[in-house]
Every structure is written in C-alpha cells, then in structure tokens.
Amino acid sequence: MTSPLSRRDSLKLAAAAGMAGVVTAFPGRQSFANAHRVQDLAVEATRITVDGTQTNALTIGGTVPGPVLRWREGEEVVIRVTNRLSEPTSIHWHGLLLAGVMDGAPGFNGYEAIQPGQTYTYRFQLRQAGTYWYHSHSAAQEQAGMYGAIVIEPARPEPVRVTRDYVVLLSDHSPEAPDAIFRNLRNREGYYNRGQRTFLDFMRDVRRDGWSATMADRKAWGEMRMDPTDLADVTGYSFLVNGRGPQDNKTFLFTPGERVRLRFINGSAMSMYDVAIPDLRMTVISADGLPVIPVPVDEFRIGVGETYDVVVNPTEARAFTIMSEPLDRSGYARATLAPREGMEAAIPPRRPRTVLTMADMGMAHGGMAMGGSAMAGMDHSGMAMGGSAMAGMNHGGMPMSGSGTGPAAANPHAGHVMPGAPAQAAADPHAGHAMPSATAMADPNNPLGWEQAGTPEGKRALRYADLRSTRARPNAPQPSRDIILRLTGQMGRYSWSLNDRRFGMEEGIRVREGDRIRIRFMNETMMAHPMHLHGMFMEMENGAGDRLPYKHVVLVRPGAEASVLLTADEVGDWPFHCHLLYHMEAGMMTRFIVEPARVASAG
Amino acid sequence: MRNVVLAAVAGAFLAPAMPALAHSHNAINSVVRLNNLDYGGSSQGDRFSWDLDARVGTYDHRLLFRTEGEQIRGQTDKAEIQLFYNRPISEFWDVNVGWRRDFFRTNRNYGAFGFSGIAPYFFEVEATAYVSEEGVLSGRLESSTDLLIARSIFNDNGPGLYLKPAIEINASAGNDRELEIRRGLTDMDLSLQLRYEFTPQIAPYVQVGWERQLGETANLARANGERISNSYAVIGIRSMF
After folding, report:
1. What digits encode the pLDDT tens for the residues B2-56?
2. How confident is the model over B216-225, as a mean pLDDT?
C-alpha cells in the first residue's frame, strides 16, 4: 500500500521540479489505485440563498461552504477538482503538511492554476490530525464562497472524548462581486467605512473629555492622516455559520449532559470575530488544528484563517446562542446549540465598536521592544509627524532589541482581558498622550484600542499567551538567525506590502532546509494582519516556554510586534502572506523559499 | 514646444509602466470621478459647471485625464482638459507630469508639472506649474477637505453628510495678452459644498462660491469694463464609477 517513492523523496522531487519550473514529477499524475479515498469536487458558479436573499456565488461541490472533508490521519487522499468556471481556479489545503505542488497556490512550487474545463488531481498523505480548511487561492474567488472544512481524525484515539462533533465555519458573504469590492477599496479610501467620526462625535467628545483632550486627539490623527475607526476595510457583509445567515439560524443539536466539540474555522475573507456562547463556558482544546493544553474561556477572538476547537458541556435543556461579532460590529454571525430544532436563545446585546488609539499606531510597539528609553526622550509632536517619519523611527529602533527579547513583548492578545486603562498605560509609556482620559478608556460603552473586545465583566477571553502545546519540546534548538518581516501599507492607496515591497517586487525569504529561524513580525500599520505561512507550522513565541503553540496563522495586532520560531523542514517555495484577502490581492505576500540541504542533481 | 511636451509625457508613461503591468498583483485599475456637475444662479447670470476626472493604471503608474469648465449665461467662460502621467513619490504624495489645453478665452497649450496628495489633517492638495506655448509660466494651487458632519441620516447605509470647503488660486509669472492675464495673482475661487452621499455613486450637493480676479489681472478687467467677481449658488451631483 505504500507509494513507490518515500514521502520525503517525493517532496524533494516535487520541490526540485517546482523550482526548476519544469513539471517532471507530479505525484498527482500517478495512478491512484492505492489511494484510500477518492473525492470528486467541481468548482462552479451558482446562486445561493442567505437569509432569504439570493446572491451570486462560486461553489466547491455545489454548496457554500463546500462539503466537510472527513479524513483519517495517515491515509492517502485523492481529490479530483474540475473547473467549471470560465476563469482559472485552484484549491489550497489550508494548514496541511504536503508536497508543494499539492499545496494549491498558483505560481508557487510548480503548481499551476486549473484552467476552465480541466481537472486537477491532488494526491497526498495526511501527516496530521485536526481541524483545517480549504479554499481557492486564485484572485478573490474565496470571497464568493469557495471554502470548506477539513476534519482529520487522529490515527490513534483522541484523548478528548465527545459525543457530538460539529464544524462551525464562520465566513463573510457579500452581494458585491469580489473584484468590485477590491476596485472600490482602491478607488476611495474608507469606501466601506460606515463608522468614521463625525462633527457630532467631535461635539460629544468635547462634552465628555473636554476641549483640549479632544482637540489633541483629532490633531494627532489628523497629522498622521490616519483614521482611528478603520477596523475592517470592507462592510456590507452577511456573516455566516456553515453558509447560513443569522436569520437562517444554523442549529447544532445536543442532549443535555453531552460533551460537544465545536470546530471553529474563520473562513472569512476580511472579518475577524469575537466569539462567545453566553452562559456556556468553552474549553479550548486545539488551535490551528493541533492540540493545546485545555484552556477554559468565555470567549475568544479568531483571526482570518485561524481555527480553534472547543468543547462545551451544556447540562440544561435549553438553547444557547453561538454569537460571533466582527470587530467593526457591522453585524453578527449566529448559530444555536439546542436540544431540538427550532429552539432559540436570546441574541446578546450587541457590543460597541472600539476606536483605535495611539497605541495601535505603533506607539506601544517602540516602547515595549526598546524598553522605552529611546522613545522616552521624544515628545509626542515629534512622533505624530506623519507616516514616513514614524516608519523610519520604527525600523531604526526595532532591530536593536536583539534576539531573545521578542517573546515577552510578542503576545498580540496581551490586552484582551485586561481592564484597559492600567494595562495599556503600563505597556505603553505614551498611552495617555492623545487619549481623552483614563475613565473613558475603562468605559465599556466607549471602548478604546484594538484589543478591547467589550468582554463582559468577570468573563474571560482567550489570550495568545494561554495557548500551550500539548507537546513539550525542551530540547528545541535555538534559532540561528532572526528574519525581520515588517508589515507595511499605505491605506490611502490601498497598497499593502511586506518590508515595503508588494508581491512581485520583492525578493522573497530564503532559508536552507533544516534551518532553525525566528521570524519577527513588526506591524507598522494600524490594522491587524493574520499572517499565514503555507507548508509549515510556526511556533508562536507567546511565553509558553518549551510548549510554544503551533500555528499556521499568527494574528499580529496593530502597531505591535510578534515573533515565531520554525524549523524549515519542508523544501519548496511557499506563499507567506496576510490572510486578509484584499491585502493579499494588493500585494501583502512574499515567497518563503526553503532550499534543499543538498541540491538534487537534475538527472 | 507642443511636440516636446507630448513626447516627454508618452515616454515617461510607457517606459516604466510596462514591466509593472506584467504582474497580476499590480493589476490595472480605473475609475471615473464626477467631482462637480452643477447648475444654478450667479451674480452674473445662470451658471453651469463641470469637473470630471478619469484615471487608469497600476499602483505605480497612472494616466490621469481631467476636464473642467463653466458657462455663464450660456457663454463658455472656461473650458480645459488636462492629461497627466501620475506616479507616487511617497506615502501621501504623487508627482504629475503632463499637458493642459484651454479652449477659452483662446486655445492654449501648456506643459504641466506638479504634485498632488494628502496634506496633514486630510487636506487634499494639488499644486501645478504650467508653461504655456507662449512661454509664460503660471501656477495653480487647489485644496479642499471633506468634513463628515453626520453619518447616514436616512438609514441608507451611505457615508453621510459632508461639508467640503475648497479653494483654488491661480498666479502668473508673466503677461498673456490674449488671455488678458497679467503678472501676479490672477484669480481665486472659494467654495463651500454641503453634500449628502447616499452612496459614493449618488451624492447630490448644494454649493455656494465666490470667484474673483486679482491684482493687475483684475485691474485690466475693470479697465475693460468687465466685472471682476462672481458669487454663485448651485445644486449638483457628484459620483464615481
């Protein structure tokens, strides 16, 4: 039953073929007589109905989302994808460890987009278990409905025993065509922002915070030409659970007393959510597919592309609302856990939308990484002098903090459950500058700062620091070098980039097979970026010691720094990008090239 | 002179743009913006004016077309077109190189060079220097800002109600007899627009403004028995598509 090539050999071969740009060894072109599973998926354009309204969609397997692919660790799967669109398409297996040519990102690893009318046969062995997903990696097709869940059962019995096991796939669906959305974003800054501050807000703030504090705040943002209400680039979405709108109310059944596993996947194009099930505690058991030491929480924030598996144990015979609010609070995704179909629980009060602060502009960033000393001497007027001046300051200072100091400062969720004012002030020597007042910050109705999820008092939100891998690695080698990845962009032009280079203009990151490296993300923008690496897991430096969690997406909060370690053991040229779809479209992507330790001879 | 300018524009656009167009992540984008299309009354009689621009290109290289003009009492008072090659030079600023042609009071070609972008506090600024085919150097400075007064009032989910103050000042370094322009500041236009955006595509407005000739140019006009200022109140529509 084994393949004539060992996995490692076929990997190298595929990678070598990919790099040479010559198609010599597509494992997918082998006979699939020895495969355990064969699955046919057609990609086609159709119309779907969400909350009673019909819209255009692109589907995999005829539905939005596509079918849940349930597989078992260790088996070899064959998926024949047929393109019935009039444009090229592709399917990428998000989070799976596989040969590059099977990864499904056109232009990488020798994989080419599937042309109209053609069928591509994916074939790979499953080397992992857990919750993953798949989606188109062509243009902005993912936005139109091309996504679905993957559930891989472990080869050995799961340590977590549950009676029910459900996928909860969150997504954002727009009546507009993805290309039109991208065009609008490029043609007018803030095209979709319906939360911009008005003159009336100004008057309200003057009443609340006083004239000088309000003027100082408006002055700081005005000088930087930045908008503190820019939480999500796109609005007008319906937020879906497994393709169903809030009115459709997708229902997951349970019998009181049962343990239920919910596999949350954020398959949205642009939306991140705060997810809570009022009156029901969740225990997070895995992140991005791989197990973590269980963490009980009341809510969690999920970035685009991330997955969290949670276990709940409802003991009462009543309904519970699974509430997922996008960060800009422009709507919500809702589903229900209930003993019977047709039951529903109250929709919790909608949470207020936060406003970004100077800390989200990178002010905290400098202070944290450099111990504040370098920045302490600068006055605020100097700091707010405009994008270019600030950017210069940031990278001037950043590399100085050296290796090893990253982890403590790296937790992008550091403020989640903190009560706002004291936590932020402590972390950020400049915090108070343009902020109206400490009392305003603690006010749950007027949240300030990207971190502020509006978590009800006494409730606990998951922090990145809570994630600890079940697998301890006490002898993990130290990284041999740090790679700096600055997350950069120009909001006004809707130009997004890495190290100031858009995809196609950049050189890529080059490492050698087996290298142990640290990647340091420095977010110089005021948006959070879910950074996704194909082909390999990143070990997120969140202070978990020898239990760093494995992640395929790391959400780097605005103006902040985060770092990951990884061993480059998968040869290939892998996409490394922001998983916000239109940021990737705009160029926030690079190549992560792992060169073979010994270059295979061409013959 | 004209040929030189046109050749420079074409060369500047075509040469660097080609490699950029090859990449899909630098896909060509285009937009047409109708900034002003309005009609109303003025102290010199009924007034019609337009201001439309179109742009096409990648992130790094764009071609800009703009036309604006006005008619008073059915007489075209001003009509011009401009064609620019536009390139970003910093996060907030672009450089523009190109050509302008006036159709009134006479036909006149200009070579143009300038900067446009967003100044602190979100002021849109455009500063352009022109050299006419007669060899006269002139300059134009335009600035405006959009103040959001209130978010959508009619539950239409549009951006809301904007107040837009704008200013335009023209100056000349020399005299142009046919255009009746004298050296120094020549004219200015101040306006205030109250606009409601149902959507960015449908944005009706009311606008009041005051145009006035300045300096020696104004003296010349006065000497010729012409009025040197005009105030107006108009209604119009802004759009983009």
Report:
1. 454 444 444 444 444 433 333 355 589 999 999 999 999 999 999 999 999 999 9
2. 95
Across the interface, whether the CB atoms of B148 and A186 are under 8 A apart is answered no
Nearest to B121 among A197, A222, A492 (CB): A222
CA–CA dist A245, A334 (Å, integer):
7
Distance from CA of B197 to the nearest CA of A (A): 11
Between residues B229 and A12, the one the model is more confident about: B229
List of chain A residues whose C-beta atoms are within 8 Å of the C-beta of residue B59: 493, 495, 502, 587
Question: Which pLDDT band, with edges at 50, 70 and 90, does A446 fall under?
Answer: confident
What CATH number is given for A7-157 in this structure?
2.60.40.420
- Which residues of chain A lie closer than 8 angstroms to B90, CB-CB? 388
Q: Which residues of B touch A186 (CB under 8 A)?
A: 29, 31
B23 to chain A: closest CA residue: A504
- pLDDT greater than 70 at residue A222: yes
Q: Among partner residues A186, A199, A495, which is closest to B147 by beta-carbon distance?
A: A199
- How many Cβ atoms from other residues are within 10 Å of residue B156's Cβ? 13
CA distance A134 to A305: 10
The pLDDT-based confidence of A226 (bands split at 50, 70, 90) is: confident
**Type of residue at B94:** D
ipTM: 0.88
Q: Which among B31, B118, B121 has the least Cβ separation from residue A492? A: B118
Instruction: State the fold for domain A238-338.
Output: Immunoglobulin-like (2.60.40)
Q: Which residues of A touch B88 (CB under 8 A)?
A: 493
Task: Name the residue facing B159 among A194, A197, A386 (closest C-beta).
Answer: A194
> What pLDDT digit, counting tens, does each position of B184-208 carry?
999 999 999 999 999 999 999 999 9
Q: Which of B92, B150, B157 is the closest to A200 by Cβ?
A: B150
Alpha-carbon distance B9 to B20, whole Å? 18
By C-alpha distance, which of A327, A580, A587 is closest to A451? A327
- CATH 2.60.40.420 for the A180-233+352-598 domain, yes or no: yes
pLDDT at B69 over 80: yes
Contact A225 B92 (CB under 8 A): yes
Contact at 8 Å (CB) between A321 and A344? yes
Is residue B84's pLDDT more than 90? yes
**Domain locations in chain A?**
7-157, 180-233+352-598, 238-338
Axis-axis angle for helices A199-209, A211-224 (nearest 10) = 140
Burial of A602 (0-12, 13-18, 19+ CB in 10 A): exposed
Question: What strand order describes the sheet that includes A550-551?
Answer: A495-498, A481-490, A516-523, A561-567, A538-540, A550-551
pLDDT for A296 beyond 90: yes
A7-157 shares its CATH topology with A238-338: yes
pLDDT on residue A7: 46
Q: Is the peptide bond preceding residue B105 cis, with omega within 30 degrees of 0?
A: yes
- Terminal-residue alpha carbon distance, chain A: 27
- Distance (Å, whole) CA B88 – CA B102: 26
pLDDT at residue A600, as a whole number: 54
User: Is the pLDDT assigned to residue A419 strictly greater than 50?
Assistant: no
Q: List the structure tokens of A508.
A: 């890529």
Chain B residues within 8 A of A224 when measuring between CB atoms: 120
Q: Are B115 and B93 in contact (CB under 8 A)?
A: yes
Q: Would you place residue A444 in the very low, low, confident or very high pLDDT band (cuts 50, 70, 90)?
A: low
Helix, coil or strand: residue A189: coil
Residue B215, both tokens = 């300096």
Q: How far is B160 from chain A (nearest CA, A)?
A: 8
